[in-house]
Write a structure and sequence with these properties.
The chain is α+β, with helices and mostly antiparallel strands. Helix content is 28%, strand content 27%. The strands form 5 sheets. A 5-stranded mixed β-sheet has the order 6-12-11-8-9, with helices on one face. It has a 4-stranded antiparallel β-sheet with strand order 13-2-15-16. Strand 4 and strand 5 form a beta hairpin. The chain is globular and about 70 Å long. This is Methylamine utilization protein. InterPro entries: Cupredoxin, MauL. It comes from Pseudoalteromonas rubra.
């Protein structure tokens, strides 16, 4: 026994017992943690397989067309009511989600008293510049519900392009030259195709529905015909009934005749 009256041997033994208990608890805690991490790793490994597999499956499905045509998509043939190949048909892939706004400014020029191109396809929200490449002035305007606007008599290029916020069809005219008629098709989808001289377009493999429109269709100018790709594959082609443009004196007369009011 020391001067203070405590037995140093017993104190040392007591400390040793406490240390052993602490080490035992530490081993148990570490063991639990190691086991928990092992379980988490096993669960994550099990979940990781199907998640990555789903992504790959989606990629493969998009590449192979998901049952819509071949891996490269589907070639659609457009014809008129006389079975002749029809060019200038707009085919828009109906997308479930609206595409984002396009920042690039499209161009509708005026060359030799004609709109160039005669048909311009853009996306909803996109802006269009209307340069006048002729050596005479033009007065461009539209009565269309999709976008009513007017660019009064001008030469050169207007400073501010015009933005088309609503989807639909815009018929263009010139107040000075009645023979000038142009069209702007404003789409909601990023996939908008126009049939070539052979009357064909190449649909993407993931297309399920398409909207079909033509400037000379017998239907109202604003009407788009919605068709499933399955229907098109069964029929082999899409028929668009067209009519020759009627003689007219003014752009406004042509517009009202085509719209029925």
């Amino acid at each position: 026994m020391n001067v203070s009256g405590h037995n140093p041997v017993r104190i040392a033994q007591g400390h040793l017992i406490l240390i052993r208990r602490a080490l035992g608890c530490a081993r148990k805690i570490v063991g639990v943690r190691i086991f928990a991490w092992s379980v988490c790793a096993w669960i994550l490994a099990g979940l990781g397989g199907p998640v990555y597999g789903a992504d790959n499956a989606l990629d493969n499905s998009a590449g192979k067309g998901g049952g819509n045509g071949s891996g490269n998509g589907y070639t659609l043939q457009l014809r008129d009511q006389h079975s002749a190949p029809l060019s200038g048909v707009v085919v828009e892939v109906v997308a479930p989600l609206r595409a984002g706004q396009v920042q690039q400014v499209a161009v509708m020029d005026q060359v030799n008293k004609q709109f160039h191109p005669r048909l311009l396809t853009i996306m909803q929200g996109q802006a269009v510049s209307f340069p006048n490449s002729d050596d005479i002035r033009h007065h461009v305007y539209s009565f269309s519900e999709t976008k009513r606007f007017e660019l009064k008599l001008y030469a050169g290029t207007p400073i501010q392009p015009i933005r088309f916020e609503q989807p639909g069809v815009v018929v263009l005219g010139c107040n000075i030259h009645d023979s000038m008629v142009g069209y702007i098709y404003v789409s909601q989808s990023k996939d908008v195709l126009t049939s070539d001289q052979s009357g064909t377009v190449q649909l993407p493999a993931y297309a399920q529905q398409v909207a079909i429109w033509h400037a000379q269709q017998t239907q109202d100018i604003d009407t788009r015909r919605i068709v499933t790709v399955t229907e098109l594959q069964q029929s082999g082609s899409a028929i668009v009934e067209t009519q020759a443009p009627a003689p007219r004196n003014t752009f406004s007369e042509m517009f009202k005749d085509h719209h029925g009011h």
